[in-house]
Design goal:
single chain
Length: 169
């Protein structure tokens, strides 16, 4: 097996959006390409897909709770942040974008983002009106100024059944 992901440490931050199912596919494809994929999940993400799904796909532990004293992964964010080749946050909700832009550190994604020096790629996923809200756009601009790269958002069918408004990152 060869390729650009072979042996790379990818941190995959998964936040609570219906688009979580796409993150499962992304984790699978990265793992098949030879990447070591460590998944960081918000509690909201775990309402859509369980950590067990990602653990089975990646064959690696999943960090889903910073405060579970029984979990050996609960304090691993510093080690993961230091070893990462890239942090990918997909899907990134409006809430997660706000946390990253404003330095909040209360979930596995936000605390690891603050601790890593690895490049960060964010794939926003939210309702079109939420995406276009000035607060969200201000957070996006803040993150871009800090070197965060964005993929999307892509337009398409929304879970709400609404048509997405025009606009992109």
């Amino acid at each position: 097996m060869t390729g650009p992901f072979l042996g790379r440490r990818v941190l995959l931050g998964v936040s609570g959006s219906i688009a979580v199912y796409k993150a499962v596919d992304l984790a699978s494809k990265l793992t098949q390409a030879g990447a070591l994929v460590d998944v960081l999940m918000t509690q909201s993400a775990a309402q859509f897909v369980t950590p067990l799904t990602f653990r089975n796909i990646t064959q690696r532990p999943v960090m889903a709770n910073l405060f579970d004293l029984e979990s050996p992964e609960a304090n691993e964010h510093i080690m993961l942040a230091s070893a990462a080749d890239i942090l990918v946050v997909a899907p990134a909700t409006a809430n997660t974008l706000a946390k990253l832009a404003n330095g909040f550190a209360d979930d596995p994604i936000s605390v690891t983002y603050l601790a890593t020096k690895a490049p960060t790629l964010v794939a926003p996923a939210m309702d079109g009106n939420m995406w276009l809200h000035p607060a969200v756009q201000a957070n996006v601009e803040t993150l871009k100024q800090r070197g965060v790269q964005f993929a999307g958002p892509a337009s398409g069918h929304l879970a709400s059944g609404l048509e997405p408004p025009a606009g992109d990152a």
